[in-house]
Amino acid sequence: MRLIVGMVLVALAFAVPVSSAAPADSPSRNQAIIRQVFGRYGSQAVRVSWCESHWHTWAQNGQYLGLFQMGYYARSKYGHGSSPWTQARAAYRYFVDSGRDWSPWSCKPW
To answer: Which of helix, strand or coil describes residue 99?
Structure first.
């Protein structure tokens, strides 16, 4: 019986990959999400986010957090979360509310 259980465990160890999911904070995945959320402004948003966070959701500079380094006031008004989807959507709401001109960000897409 032990031999059978041992053989099954060994077979499972080789059959199941250690991690089949994408990393939680993948810069290439985050870029794709930003492009999708920002639509026709996606290329600009990717450039701004690179400058702000190098596409990392965990980036922090004082009170500024996330892909777009949004401050406390902006996060409380437009939202924030740990996922790239949540951060990109919040930044998009801020971008639209500001007149689609990137004025809230230190980094510009040009």
So the answer is: coil
Alpha-carbon distance of 99 to 95, in angstroms, equals 7
Q: What is this structure's pTM?
A: 0.79
Query: Is 16 or 30 the better-scoring residue by pLDDT?
Result: 30
pLDDT class of 1 with cuts at 50, 70, 90 = low
Q: Is 10 helix (H, G, I), strand (E, B) or coil?
A: helix
- The pair of structure tokens assigned to 57 is 């959701």
Tell me how far apart the alpha carbons of residues 11 and 39 are, in angstroms, rounded to a whole number. Answer: 46
- What span, in angstroms and rounded, lies between the C-alpha atoms of 68 and 70? 6
- What distance in Å separates the CA atoms of residue 99 and residue 77, rounded to the nearest whole number? 16
Residue that the structure tokens 């001109």 belong to: 101
pLDDT confidence of residue 90: 98
* Residue keyed to tokens 């777009």: 68
pLDDT at 50: 98
